[in-house]
């Protein structure tokens, strides 16, 4: 999938070196409110995502700059529930230097088009840490609505307890969300 300066390529082990470099751009694994693999664990994480793709529960992608093939992050359709025609957009992160540049909007447009238009999903969910204010603002800018907060939802790798904010976009909202994403991406050019 490609558009607006990015390509979403099926994640494979050849992306590991680029993803290590992207994660080092900002030392993203040090952020307490998200889970970005360390350089040492990147390969294991990519292999785990590939296994989940084989099981049909995830569609992981390397986020690459168009024309270069350079990996600058990861995103996915995860927790795929084909029977109920829904999934979550998650495990998303980008090199710090690419945050706030329109990459996120472009990736979300591609993933949501795949989910709603190609796969006929009725809902797409987004989840983030209560304290990840940047991610929450980005999700809200997409037009997703907050469904609720899962309190004491997860124990993070540092032992802290995460409250998870759950958002979603439903199929009837998708045309307006798509139009707004296209408008935003057009103004970035």
Query: What is the overall shape?
Result: globular
Provide the structure class: alpha+beta
Q: What ranges have pLDDT less than 50 throughout 5 or more consecutive residues?
A: none
Q: Ends: how far apart?
A: 19 Å
Number of strands: 8
SSE arrangement, N to C: EEHHEEEHEHEEH
Strand order of the largest sheet: 1-2-3-4-5-6-8-7
GO molecular function, one term: transferase activity
Organism: Plantactinospora sonchi
Protein name: GNAT family protein
InterPro entries: Acyl_CoA_acyltransferase, GNAT_dom
Any key phrases for this structure?
alpha+beta; 8-stranded mixed β-sheet; Aminopeptidase; 34% helix; single chain; 189 residues; 8 strands
Can you offer a commentary on this structure?
The chain is globular and about 40 Å long. The chain contains 5 helices and 8 strands. It is an alpha+beta fold and 189 residues long.
Which helices and strands appear, and what pairs or packs with what?
Layout: E1 2-3, E2 6-10, H1 16-24, H2 42-55, E3 58-65, E4 71-81, E5 86-94, H3 103-118, E6 123-129, H4 133-142, E7 145-155, E8 161-170, H5 174-188
Parallel strand pairs: 5-6
Antiparallel strand pairs: 1-2, 2-3, 3-4, 4-5, 6-8, 7-8
Task: Report a brief summary of the structure.
The protein has 189 residues and is α+β, with helices and mostly antiparallel strands.
